[in-house]
Amino acid sequence: MAVESASLLRAGLLLLLLMAAQVLPLVSGCNRGFYERMINDLCLAKFKFDMGGVDRGLWCSWPDTMEIYEGLTNCTFQVALRVDCFWPNQIVDRFFMQIHRIYFYDCALTGRLLHDPPTSILAPFIAVPVLVTLLMTALVVWRSKRTEGVL
């Protein structure tokens, strides 16, 4: 009986915590709409201005955009502190997804610009398999014509 009551007590506490988790964000001081407008008006405007000063070809170059990106991140954090919102949150996640869709959609995951390798490196990686394939084909044809002494 004591085990069952302890189990019921734990289940009740868990239910209470889940209900509190649903209610507390609604009663917090964060005005989500205001926060979203503020990061769009303040942070996004400055980010657009700063990115406008960087050549479009360098948007994927992390050393060239790191300071601007850190400024954007810091701006969203500072605004969240001022309007009493948690950071990071869903609004910030959506905001940065939008930023990445607009500015960094064509970048590699490593943040480096992608380039074709030089011909001196690329040529052997193409030539060797082609030559090996031709050599093996010639060997098979030559060997199939010489049937005496195989068995």
Report on the structure:
With 151 residues, the chain is mainly alpha-helical. Helix content is 72%, strand content 0%. Helix 2 (32-52) runs antiparallel to helix 3 (62-82). The model is unreliable at 11-25 (pLDDT under 50).
Note the total helix count. Answer: 5
Average pLDDT level: 81
Tertiary shape: elongated
**Strand share of the residues?**
under 5%
State the end-to-end CA separation.
Answer: 84 Å
Q: Give me the strand/helix succession.
A: HHHHH
Largest sheet: none
- Structural class call reads mainly alpha
Report the C-alpha radius of gyration, rounded.
31 Å
The overall strand count is: 0
| Residue runs with pLDDT of under 50 for 5 or more positions | 11-25
Topology record:
Elements: H1 2-27, H2 32-52, H3 62-82, H4 90-103, H5 119-145
